[in-house]
Amino acid sequence: MADRPTDMAPVHVLVFPWPLQGHINSMLPFAEGLLGAGVHVTFLHTEHNLRRVDRAASPRLRFASVPDGLPDDHPRSVAHLSEIGRSLRPSASAAYRALLAPALSTGSNADGGFPPVSCVVADGLLPFAIDIAEELGVPALAFRTESACSILAYLSVPSLVGLGEVPVPAGADLDEPVRGVPGMEGFLRRRDLPSSCRGHGEAGELDPMLQVLAKYTAHSCKARALIFNTTASLERSALAHIAPHMRDVFAIGPLNAISAAPASATSLWREDDGCTAWLDGHADRSVVYVSLGSLAIISREQFAEFLSGLVGAGYAFLWALRPDMVGASQSAALQEAVDAAGKSKVRVVDWAPQRDVLRHRAVGCFLTHAGWNSTLEGIAEGVPLACWPFFADQQINSRFTAAVWGTGLDMKDVCERAVVERMVREAMESGELRRSAQALARQVTRDIAEGGSSASEFERLVGWIFPNRLRAQPVSLPSIQGTVQSTCPTMLSAMQCIP
């Protein structure tokens, strides 16, 4: 990545992720990429998260924090996402404004050697951060940590509602094809839509979470640009359908493949550093790596089905099983896994250095929740995926893995030992899946290399954020609200009333 031209004034970008592991995982490598281009970066955590992460800064990187308004012992889990969102905005706004205030001054050496903030890159799930920055005269870009295909689905919610596709009623045929998401008519089924598209409550109302996500996605058109952690070779069609609704779009991923920092730099969990040593004792492509991400919660019954399926497949497995994943029965679950498979064939850890694990020669497949970071990490390393999506965008990511890229298997909506066993064996043994996964990994490597699509897009983004471009007059804003209103007035009204 090219360095900043020496005749330009220093640029300072504030990067503000939604305060969950998956969002930090992609936005911190993005910040590191900016550092490599000569940009000063403030990476903004919540106070709770800043106490949990590695804070190793550099001369042009600093970490700052804002309160999230929740007590220290609050679980901040998947069951509390809406609570986090409701608390974060009123609690963080004042401290966030204070960080941006130096941009209004004329000083060039504000805050201990850092120049004033000249640009904000905020998570698209933090629309208030974009609005406050623009109010203060600081240009703001939105960063979506999900796949472009899932963002296109959220952007299409008004159309899906107008067509009667969403909410999907209880008891409906989930294999019915879906209209209304451009470019996906040939393979998208009801079961592949984001999980919140399914009916909520007895009357089948729209899930409140879906309304929020659709509203926030529409809000992205207010930002100066929308940044994706993806590459055109993976999601060219989705990016092309999103672009007309946005002022600009940058596809600069996969960022995990660009970052040189250790995975621990982004982790809110303590990683088990003995994983790779354990893998060293196994033959090439003989181990199944299992991780359902940082948010998924499974029942004791689901754990038993996964365990039985893994043992039945006959391969050694490394399982990243968070302490809160199976609830109160976690200790018993761990012992059950070891007893069932034998010590030499299973290692269960709270959290694993995932990038290091996936690139290890011993790993033959990845049983994953199909979160976007995990999907990209598996793709970048050429590892076949067996996908069991839990919620949100994971459903559509899983479908793309199986039906579009051909690099894995999709076992959504079922958790049965026989299915787990069969799919793990196929992911470990299928030459076709492995060839497709390795071919896609080679393409992604080309994308991030000099002259590749993602590398070129990142250079274009760096050029965009320097002052000569930031001072330019804003471009015209496409009238997405008019499109939404004509498609589904009720949905637009619902979006506008959500805080």
From TrEMBL:
Q: What are the entry keywords?
A: Glycosyltransferase, Transferase
**UniProt-recorded Gene Ontology molecular function terms:** UDP-glycosyltransferase activity
Whether Glycosyltransferase counts among this entry's keywords is yes
PROSITE patterns for the chain: UDPGT (PS00375)
Q: Which InterPro entries match?
A: UDP_glucos_trans (IPR002213), UDP_glycos_trans_CS (IPR035595)
E.C. code: 2.4.1.-
Kind of enzyme, top EC level? Answer: transferase
A Pfam family of this chain: UDPGT
Q: Which family does it belong to?
A: Belongs to the UDP-glycosyltransferase family.
Q: What's the protein here called?
A: Glycosyltransferase
Please name the source species.
Triticum aestivum (Wheat)
